[in-house]
Specification:
heterodimer, A: about 220 residues, mainly alpha, globular, B: about 250 residues
């Protein structure tokens, strides 16, 4: 089964490498959304530094959602998803492998670029490690939860909008704790509790979502 | 699995048959209708006209007799939808999926009523229609969850698949509701505590909470009635042409 998952991971990474736009588009989208806030709200450093945590988290969430639509769609359209599900392995292993690639491609670049964004939004520099850590724990949770929605809307017309409707309510806890942890760090408060809760949500999502997304794929 | 020492009772499997459910629901329906009408009228008249006015809020508290049942039902229905969906997934019962789907619209309606009446009540009491308080926010998220399930149902044209998708999403949503609720409560603890939970009775006199109890029970009966009616109409749609249905007295009018 590990080999099966590894084969999917390698295949998907190869596909992304041949189509780098799939990886770059969410990142550009992330930067654009971030850039809209100073333009739309106010370019003042005092205001931006207060809202930076929330803005970055919301933008990360939207960028994740944008790329989630394609999680199973391409495989479904060319028929390979059906063949993968026919393999003698549980469907959750397929979901887990695909989610892992999705996170590598969409979540990890966001984390790597986040210090730059944080500086642009005047987030206090001592809060940057917390921002990166919270994104590191939080974005996999976003990918996992999103897999359920992506699996449910696979093969449905106009799936992208629907996916957003289905998944954003489930993202509420992640954004609350993710953004609060950064805000707490910016004020010099302890962040252990937030990180523990984020990690708990990650573990919980890891248990529940591959199974439910897998059964949704089989519908 | 066939050697399992413990089995679900016979009636449970009978309920999974559209024919049985249709007949049984047909018998129950008028009773729920009478109970809902009676309890809601009794509770509403007592609560709105005869219950004493609140010493602080005056008469504005009377919206409670609409608001609280709607809020309670909005959560119960989501749970009921998830349970029906789980039953459908485990025992592969089409009727259970139909019940789950019947819950969506009525659940969303109760959630919307709870939100709107809450906003109306909030204005005189808190001075604002909306505050980002824990309970309000989690109810709003609940409403969004209903909206998502509703949208998914409309997007999937095949009924059977839509039923399963509803079930999965309802189960995931139910697991998430406590998480959302607590995350929201920790996030913003502005919480204006509510003095009208049914578990902690003595916070108001009997003349005030008994009508509330009646309207809550009445709302449950109304919900049961609507679900039975909608499930029956789904059965009629999916089984149209089946000989048992054509001979049923509801159709023939005999």
């Amino acid at each position: 089964m590990i080999r099966y998952m590894w084969a999917i991971v390698r295949r998907d990474l190869l596909l992304v490498a041949r189509q780098p736009a799939e990886m770059i588009n969410p990142l550009v989208f992330f930067l654009l959304v971030i850039a809209l806030f100073p333009l739309g709200v106010s370019p003042e450093a005092a205001l931006l530094s207060q809202t930076a945590a929330g803005v970055i988290w919301v933008a990360a969430m939207l960028a994740t959602l944008l790329s989630l639509e394609l999680l199973f769609k391409l495989d479904h359209d060319d028929g390979s998803l059906e063949q993968l599900l026919l393999a003698p392995y549980p469907s959750w292993s397929l979901v887990l492998a695909k989610v892992f690639v999705h996170w590598l491609v969409s979540g990890l670049p966001l984390i790597l670029i986040s210090p730059l964004i944080a500086t642009m939004l005047f987030l206090p520099s001592h809060a940057v490690p917390t921002l990166m850590l919270s994104l590191l724990i939080g974005t996999p949770t976003l990918s996992l939860l999103g897999a359920i929605g992506a699996a449910l809307v696979t093969g449905v017309r106009g799936g992208g909008m629907l996916l957003t409707l289905l998944i954003l309510p489930l993202y509420v806890p992640v954004i609350i704790f993710g953004a609060s942890s950064v805000a707490a760090a910016a004020q010099g408060m302890a962040i252990g509790g937030y990180m523990a809760l984020l990690a708990a949500m990650f573990v919980f999502a890891l248990m529940i979502t591959p199974w439910s997304a897998g059964s949704a794929l089989k519908l | 699995m066939t050697e399992s020492s413990w089995r679900m009772p016979r009636w449970f499997h009978q309920m999974g048959s559209p024919k049985w459910f249709y007949g049984f629901a047909g018998i129950l329906q008028p009773w729920f209708a009478i109970a809902a009408l009676g309890l809601l009228t009794w509770g509403a008249v007592w609560g709105l006209a005869f219950a004493p006015a609140d010493y602080q809020q005056g008469n504005s508290f009377r919206i409670m007799y609409v608001h609280v049942p709607a809020a309670i039902l909005s959560q119960s229905i989501f749970l009921g939808m998830a349970v029906a969906g789980a039953v459908g997934l485990v025992w592969k019962m089409k009727v259970a999926f139909m019940v789950a789907r019947s819950c969506i619209a009525i659940g969303a309606t109760f959630t919307a009523i709870a939100l709107v009446t809450g906003a109306i009540w909030g204005k005189p009491t808190w001075g604002a229609y909306w505050v980002w308080d824990a309970r309000l926010t989690s109810t709003l998220v609940l409403f969004f969850l209903y909206a998502g399930i509703m949208a998914l149902n409309q997007a999937i044209s095949e009924r059977h698949i839509a039923g399963k998708a509803t079930a999965i999403l309802a189960i995931v949503g139910t697991i998430n509701i406590p998480i959302i609720k607590y995350s929201v409560e920790w996030w913003n603890t502005l919480h204006q505590s509510s003095s009208f939970t049914l578990t902690a009775k003595p916070s108001m006199p009997a003349d005030m909470y008994l009508p509330l109890l009646l309207t809550v029970l009445g709302s449950y009966c109304l919900f049961a009635l609507v679900v039975l009616m909608r499930t029956r109409s789904q059965i009629v749609q999916s089984q149209s042409g089946a000989s048992w249905l054509m001979q049923h007295r509801d159709i023939t009018g005999a």
